[in-house]
Amino acid sequence: MSSVALALRPLEFFFAQYRRVWRGTAVTSVVTPVVYLLALGWGLGQFLKDVTVDGETVDYLTFVAPGLLAATAMQLATFESSWPVLSAIKWDRQYHAMLASPLRVGDILLGHQTFVAARIFMTSTVYLVVITAFGAVDSPLGILAIPVAVLVGLAFSLPIAAWAAHTENEVSFVAIFRFVILPMFLFSGTFFPISTLPRPLEVIAYATPLWHGVNLCRQLTLGDVDVWSALLNTGYLIAFIAVGLALARFTYRRRLVV
Amino acid sequence: MGEQNGQPLIQARGLVKRFGELVAVDAIDFDLQRGEAFGFLGPNGAGKTSTMRMIGCVSPVTDGTLRVFGLDPARDGVKIRGRLGVVPQADTLDMELTVRENIVIYGRYFGLPRRQLGPRADELLEFVQLTERANDRVEPLSGGMKRRLTIARSLVNDPDVMLLDEPTTGLDPQARHVVWDRLYRLKQSGVTLVLTTHYMDEAEQLCDRLVVMDKGKIVAEGSPRDLIDRYSTREVVELRFDGTRPDDLGYWTAGHVTRVESLPDRVLLYTDDGDAAAHALHERGLVPDSVLVRRSTLEDVFLHLTGRSLID
Asked: Which of A34, A52, B172, B221 is at a distance of 20 to 30 A from B211, taking alpha carbons?
């Protein structure tokens, strides 16, 4: 039995569970970014002058929309890999039910992450349709922003899942949201180019995976792709995914195989 | 190494489980044959759950050998788990899903096709008498119903062996009897049962053969009847004294009683004829506040073997 086939089995559980709550999550994962888009891109954007990206001048809505796509993927992924992972280990214990079947720890990790990726894929697709309707996508290359959003999501969800499988309580999740995710959301190029930040902060912003996701999504929706920087952005996200996967495999095993 | 005829379904030799310094299972040996109902009896912390988790291939063996269906859990966990039905000590049901969905989704973990799982789930719900709750969410179900659902779910892959870890702990007496009745039916239909319990009545009701565990070791093995015959007397007289109890019980009981156990709340006199012993005490002028004559149970066996009660 191949690993892929085994990893697909838990997926059905996560979707069955998701069917029960999808209305609520549709609000948080789709409506919230659209509200941001309306308030900032369209509302606030009326008062802002156009932004210049790589020599090209675009209106603020077109500037902020791809940034919000990447930032939404980050937030959704972080949420999906924090409480649900700890719950599946500690409170509702679904992982333990899965472990009593032929599934192995690695299959469960991959299955859960595949579900997170699928959630980001669906949300990003809906979001991309919305911003296209708003005229904020200048190029057909913009469709590639969907897989990029999935990469952004996984670059967060795997390290967070690794942490969730390590921690004993959920207090740290609130801290992660407040002190890691929120500052990244605000200062990693989503709302303004990081070149406007003081130099030290710009360096920090540049080191965040979110900036690489934002930059790549923006290049794609603007249709202004620099191949080398796109490869660097993709490579940076994949590095986070790879390291996150290794860490998560380690913490999952240590927690579940005792 | 594969499965051969006549070979035990599960075999342990010098099986050890350590957690750091703590030795949870201390070099135990046992064999389990097809069709048996086999029990691990012992108090909390005796190593029963650790043993079950090793058999269930979710906890690595520290030392010694363990073979399940002739396979090594370290190498063939996937194959072994595919043939086991596990009822864990704490329910792992999905509270948000319906009763029926719980079985179907669980069946999918075993790779069973969806079209088979519908009818299978209905059949299993019928067996555990939950048909009427099939489309309800799990969360509001009573403890006994949840346990029955867990049992139904563990049967979804038509397992060769069922592992039941404390199957009725935490249930009220009536719910326990319903669970026992279902497990008894499974046993009658030829399913091999392995269970842990610290209830002697559960062990007596369900187990053909059991091992008594204490502090990670097996201290005795046999059928419930065997163990009682070997380690206890036919009957027991329980005496309670509200005030001070006589210090020289040997004198009062001489000639009638094989053994005396003095517990904090009562004194147990082990004898083959309880009525005669009680009568003799009375004759000799010893009048406790209450006298109860009963048959020996596994509780007495455990007390004799370890000097402690099963439930503390």
From this structure: B172
